[in-house]
């Protein structure tokens, strides 16, 4: 199996994260949304339209599951978010998505 060849690769993974300058990824409501702009919105829009599936952490998945099914403020995006397959990296319970327990080796 190793090393992988081009024939082994069936897709590509793109990481899209919001990280503060000090490395904090949690609590974006305290440090991210205040800096939202049209440029960031366009980037996020393009990113989701190019996606074939989503890999989310449990907390992010739960926030998405609460917001996107009834979202009306993002024309076309809510439908895309709701229609994409979702994989959740979690060690705890899950609902409505494929659970993937990921562990560092």
Description:
The protein is globular, with a radius of gyration of 16 Å. The relative contact order is 0.12. The protein has helices at 28-31, 38-49, 58-67, 77-83; strands at 54-57, 86-89, 98-100. The protein has one domain. The chain has 105 residues and is of the alpha/beta class. Residues 101-105 have low confidence and may be disordered.
SSE map:
Blueprint: H1 28-31, H2 38-49, E1 54-57, H3 58-67, H4 77-83, E2 86-89, E3 98-100
Parallel strand pairs: 1-2, 2-3
Q: How are the strands ordered across the major sheet?
A: 1-2-3
Shape: globular
Helix segment tally: 4
Query: What oligomeric state do the depicted chains represent?
Result: single chain
What is the tally of beta strands?
A: 3
> Alpha-carbon distance between the termini?
17 Å
Determine the structural class based on helices, strands and strand pairing.
alpha/beta
Spell out the key features of this protein.
105 residues; alpha/beta; three-stranded parallel β-sheet; 31% helix; globular; disordered C terminus
Q: Can you summarize this structure?
A:
The chain contains four helices and three strands, in the order ααβααββ. It has helices at 28-31, 38-49, 58-67, 77-83; strands at residues 54-57, 86-89, 98-100.
């Amino acid at each position: 199996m190793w090393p992988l060849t081009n024939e082994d690769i069936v897709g590509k993974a793109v990481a899209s994260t919001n990280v503060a300058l000090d490395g904090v990824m949690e609590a974006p409501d305290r440090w991210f949304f205040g800096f939202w702009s049209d440029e960031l919105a366009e980037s996020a829009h393009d990113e989701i339209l190019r996606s074939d599936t989503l890999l989310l952490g449990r907390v992010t998945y739960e926030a998405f599951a609460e917001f996107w099914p009834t979202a009306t403020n993002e024309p076309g995006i809510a439908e895309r978010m709701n229609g994409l397959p979702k994989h959740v990296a979690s060690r705890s319970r899950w609902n409505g998505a494929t659970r993937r327990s990921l562990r560092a080796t």
